Amino acid sequence: MKNYIKLVNFEVNRIIKLYIGLLIITTISQFIGFFWKTTTYLSQAENMIKHGGMSQTTFIEQYGPFNMFEIIHTLWFVGPIALGVAAVMIYIFLIWYRDWLGKNTFIYRLLMLPTSRVNVLLAKATTIMLGVFGLVAFQYILLIVQSAALKWRIPKAFRIDLTIPEIINNQEYLMIIMPKTFTQFVLNYGAGITFLFICFTVILFERSFRIKGAIAGILYALISSSLFALPFLILIWLEKDVYPSEAILILVGIGAVVLSSSVGLNSYLIKRKVTV
């Protein structure tokens, strides 16, 4: 356990500067969007009411009150989230390949440390998941800050105050990363962890057997992904309905099988097939 924690700490330190940079970009971008949208709305209200002779009531009826949805639908808000997703996807591969492709081929020293190679595997997976949860938690904090700033920025008569759950539950991409129920949390992030280990399997197959391994890894990923759809295709073919609770049990069962097989394959490959 001690060696595993040290490896996690090591992996986190290797990416911390880029990670902080991503958080800064997210903050700056979303607050640019925040001030742009609120300033535009306030300027419009001032022009129509003070200079256009429109009453406050008429303006609100015609243009609507301001709320957080006006902000979270902008590219300034969505863009950094998409950038974070892309960064995680890239880093899933980079966390391995930079060790092999660097000047000093660092993977040789990493795999010869006096600890189980499985710890190296788990440390890399843990680092990525910590990064994901960190980004989600940071986005949640930004939502709270922006929601509070909106009350300061827009007069009460011109706005609708929304709770954080109301904001999240009315936007699909936020519901995915911030599920409102524990069951949905397990499903969403369980699928994410399974996807992570499937990607690791593809990488380690390729590192173990090169071109043949890459082909085998891709085939494994395709088969694993198709397993999630297969039971539902069979039920459709048999013309049988599935209750939501039954569908969840099917997905959890398949996910557990795919995840356990992926972890097992990863452990076998890194211990037995990846050479230094």
The total count of strands amounts to: 0
* Series of H and E elements: HHHHHHHHHH
- Main β-sheet, in a few words? none
Radius of gyration: 24 Å
Instruction: Detail the poorly predicted runs.
Output: none
The SS-based structural class is mainly alpha
- What is the molecular shape? elongated
Helix content: over 70%
Which percent band covers the strand fraction?
under 5%
Describe the protein's architecture and organization.
- The chain has 276 residues and is an all-alpha fold.
- Helices cover 83% and strands 0% of the residues.
- The chain has ten helices and no strands.
- The chain has helices at 2-51, 56-63, 69-72, 75-101, 107-111, 117-153, 164-169, 172-177, 182-237, 244-273.
- α4 (75-101) packs antiparallel against α6 (117-153), α4 (75-101) crosses α9 (182-237) and α9 packs across α10.
- It is elongated and about 80 Å long.
- 22% of the residues are buried.
Describe this structure in a few short sentences:
This protein is mainly α and 276 residues long. The chain has helices spanning 2-51, 56-63, 69-72, 75-101, 107-111, 117-153, 164-169, 172-177, 182-237, 244-273.
Topology of helices and strands:
Elements: H1 2-51, H2 56-63, H3 69-72, H4 75-101, H5 107-111, H6 117-153, H7 164-169, H8 172-177, H9 182-237, H10 244-273
Helix pairs in contact: 1-4, 1-6, 4-6, 4-9, 9-10
